[in-house]
Design brief:
By secondary structure, the protein is mainly α. Helices cover 70% and strands 0% of the residues. This is Amino acid permease.
């Protein structure tokens, strides 16, 4: 493919014209799995089990998977019909309103830029457990440079790097589930049990030891665990044959995630008492993965999981920088940011957008020096909340798109890919996401992040109204 077109060409050919289509189905699936399988599974899964109990955690993750699947079906329909690198921001602009599209794009940029710094910091802290005499800041700079380099090389290189980083996590989760099942049925030894543990732990303290309420209060953690699946929509504009590859990637990714997450929860719950699953220790040793691997007798379990979590963090940062920079490029392509942000290098990368997004990681990098727990938890709260708001916009956009499609005299069969059970899927997806957002109010640790998100949303709408509205109307 030729080098990137000029700005004039970009405007005349459409929003996604300048970005190169270099991704296949395997890239899309692994980018999606890579975005979702992270510290939320390796560390956060234990926290959900300790709060809800084993059965409650299984129900939470199944509900989370169903919600994610409904949202991704909506996204699939939109992405196949309009494969845009601006993705849901563009869809919201067209089918909800320009101000909402602008706000959603900035929210998704905030989602990833807020967590970038925390990913680098967390990876650096894990490296320090191996090399205590080397400065955390040195590791942070090295990891940031690696991720920046991968994003600046080419879309193909980015996709390949994400494929292999994600594969490390997938192999670990599959090995954990298979070994765990062998231990559960007594085929291999498990420390503390002379006979097969089977599933007695699942209901040892009753079906719901803390009641039903924690199932709903942990939904933000669970939904955030599934976040990253929507990266398929962002990458659709740089995918070969999106009509074929996007639906296949969505179905493959969601079902694999559901099996991985629920399988992991069942193994942890069957092999560990639920009060042991939570994070009551410091560092990687608190991961239920480490505890189970140690009890099975896997040598160097802590080192293995530390390595896997580092790759998980770098994979998430890699995907996050890609997604956030494409959102900034999309705003610039719509003339809602200066045209400098949509400038591309010879490899078709929006390099200014990538560089500026890296600067957005600074607050996260400061989390280690100033009130680390408070800043870290609120940044994750902000990321989770903004992600769920973006999911709501996807459902709303698809609902309005399909209504317009029918009004124009088209039939569902004319769509290359259509979400089933319309209008039930977008309506239920929107309602469940809305309930998840409201649950943040009931967590005192996240109330500051919740208020900050609302202020950010208000600022986005206000800035659009006062800075861009007249200019955009005149350009339309």
């Amino acid at each position: 493919m030729q080098s990137s077109p000029t700005q004039h060409d970009a405007q005349s050919q459409g929003n996604s014209a300048p970005l190169k289509r270099a991704m296949s189905t395997r890239h899309l699936v692994m980018i999606s799995l890579g975005g979702a399988i992270g510290t939320g599974l390796f560390l956060g899964s234990g926290e959900v089990i300790s709060q809800t109990g084993p059965i409650g955690a299984i129900i939470s993750y199944i509900l989370g998977g169903i919600v994610a699947y409904m949202v991704m079906l909506c996204l699939g329909e939109l992405a196949v019909h309009m494969p845009e690198s601006g993705s849901f921001g563009t869809y919201a602009h067209k089918y909800i309103g320009p101000a909402t599209g602008y706000t959603v794009t900035w929210l998704y940029w905030l989602t990833w830029s807020a967590t970038l710094g925390t990913e680098f910091t967390a990876a650096a802290l894990l490296m320090q457990e191996w090399f205590p005499h080397i400065s955390m800041w040195l590791w942070t700079i090295i990891f940031a440079a690696v991720v920046f380099g991968l994003n600046m090389s080419s879309t193909r290189w980015f996709a390949e790097s994400e494929f292999w980083l994600s594969l490390v996590k997938v192999v670990t989760v599959v090995a954990f589930i298979l070994l765990g099942l062998l231990a559960i049925f007594g085929i291999i030894n498990y420390e503390g049990y002379s006979a097969a543990p089977l599933f007695s732990n699942l209901t040892a303290n009753g079906w719901f030891p803390n009641g039903l309420v924690p199932i709903f209060t942990t939904m933000l953690i669970v939904n955030f665990a599934f976040s990253g699946t929507e990266l398929i929509g962002v990458a659709a504009g740089e995918t070969k044959d999106p009509a074929k590859n996007v639906p296949k990637a969505i179905n493959t990714a969601i079902w694999r995630l559901l099996i991985f997450f629920v399988g992991t929860i069942i193994v942890i719950s069957a092999l560990l008492p639920h009060e042991m699953a939570g994070l009551d220790a410091e560092g990687v040793s608190s991961s239920p993965f480490v505890t189970v691997f140690n009890h099975i007798g896997i040598p160097y379990a802590e080192d293995i999981i530390r390595f896997v979590i580092i790759t998980a963090l770098l994979s998430a940062a890699n995907s996050g920088l890609f997604a956030a920079s494409r959102m900034m490029w999309s705003l610039s392509a719509k003339k809602q940011l200066p045209t400098v942000f949509s400038k591309l290098n010879k490899r078709g990368i929006p390099y200014i957008a990538v560089m500026v997004t890296m600067l957005g990681a600074l607050p996260g990098l400061l989390s280690e020096q100033f009130a680390p727990e408070t800043i870290f938890k609120n940044l994750l709260g902000v990321a989770a909340f903004t992600m769920v708001v973006v999911w709501m916009s996807i459902c709303w956009s698809q609902f309005n798109f399909r209504r317009e499609w029918y009004k124009a005299g088209h039939r569902k069969e004319e769509l290359a890919f259509s979400a089933p059970l319309f209008p039930l899927v977008p309506i239920l997806g929107f309602i469940f996401c809305f309930i998840t957002c409201i649950s943040m109010v009931f967590d005192p640790d996240m109330i500051v992040g919740f208020i900050c998100c609302l202020i950010f949303i208000a600022c986005c709408y206000a800035s659009y109204a006062y800075l861009y509205k007249d200019k955009l109307h005149s350009s339309d």
